[in-house]
């Protein structure tokens, strides 16, 4: 009991330290933005008044900047506890009121999106569950789920606007007047999230269907209805913990969809404030998103314990994503890779920055195989150069997270509470802080993705390392005098690196999608860079009359996801 209380106290100490560090960064944000906050506020309030020393000193006293870092942090924390987040540097309005209204909108939208995700998950897992109850194994692939999970939410949103709002006029195009405004953005958010849940749920059902207890129950003649409920309960315990993480990710990651549909949610508010470097609004939005994320993710484990009881000992964080079996006909993939490589190589010979206003928004033709954009630039050239840009950045970010995950997993003896908190943190939140301090750019986007992407890999590596250290041959080697360095480099590392690399390869599409989302929001690569997310953002206003400006970059993201999933099956 004492050891358990000590471990629990240590876990809460780590959580407290992590929260304190994040709070300190947010509180000191006005001092680390790289510009004078007083000058920013003065220019926002009055463009006519000269920024003389007296005026700047008055603004600094008003903002509490003359109290130094410690005084500023103490004052900000005291005001935040009482719900006072100050006033916007741009508009001068109270921040707390705007954030509260935006949070209510985002919470409603996320709740509807979660219902859509559960419905999509149920459709994807129904066949597997029926076969499991009937004693048959479902070995079908997750191809449909992989395609749906790789679709950018903002692309789905734009297509829904064109089809259901503009052409069919069934639903409103934008705004937030009643619940009808929530339908299209909720579906756009819920479909990719439901696909991810569907993959997790299908593999949970397959694991339960192959368990010894199920064969024993079947041999004992227990009714199929009882067996089905038991399998469903076991699989639901895995999904329940993921629902908290999903809700946390949707609250912070819905910014792109909120921008597409002009929904006044907290994500859109935070992105606008970060681009304008309105620090008080960014501080409040990030703090609220963090609080919601930590709370939602913390509710997942009690739900899992409620479903499983004392058997719920495994952390969802440590679970690796499922890896499909290698294809029996790899020549299909070889032909596809050669064809895509030839197209990209052909596009690399073209100039992605050449502007021709006489060739604006031309459809695909022999001269421009993928058409042109709003400035007459060749889409094939921009897509090909963007493939190199996006793929290299995604590979670099994925490799970095894999290295960090392996190192942290080797060093950690038990599940890290800080890793669990980071796992619940959307990359958009970190990108907001980076953009508010240094301005938007591709380096900040990569840093945000890496800062939040190492946690699942670290949990996976920690579990594998613990299994290896407890294995009989390693215990024997340790008894024979083998050094820890020898055991780690010769036995533990070779055993854990391939599974972690496969895990990282499966997560490569989500990394590329996160970078594309940040580019679309204006927090990543900046014009005129041909980054895929930026290409989609530039083509979105013309998606109805020139759909190729959006469809080709979106197809590239989906193809990257499928290629990464295939690569993961062949890592040994």
Please identify the structural class as seen in this structure: mainly alpha
> What's the tally of helices?
23
**Unreliable runs:** 310-328
Radius of gyration: 25 Å
Helix content: over 70%
Termini separation comes to 42 Å
Describe it.
With 572 residues, this protein is mainly α. Helix content is 71%, strand content 0%. The chain contains 23 helices and no strands. It has helices at residues 2-27, 37-45, 53-63, 68-81, 95-133, 143-149, 153-167, 183-209, 212-219, 224-253, 255-260, 266-276, 279-298, 300-308, 330-348, 379-411, 417-423, 427-438, 442-469, 472-479, 484-521, 532-539, 548-568. α12 packs antiparallel against α13. The protein is globular. The chain starts with a helix and ends with a helix.
List keywords for this structure.
globular, single chain, 572 residues, mainly alpha, 0% strand
Structure summarized in a few sentences:
With 572 residues, this protein is mostly helical. It is 71% helix and 0% strand.
Task: Compile the SSE list and pairings.
Elements: H1 2-27, H2 37-45, H3 53-63, H4 68-81, H5 95-133, H6 143-149, H7 153-167, H8 183-209, H9 212-219, H10 224-253, H11 255-260, H12 266-276, H13 279-298, H14 300-308, H15 330-348, H16 379-411, H17 417-423, H18 427-438, H19 442-469, H20 472-479, H21 484-521, H22 532-539, H23 548-568
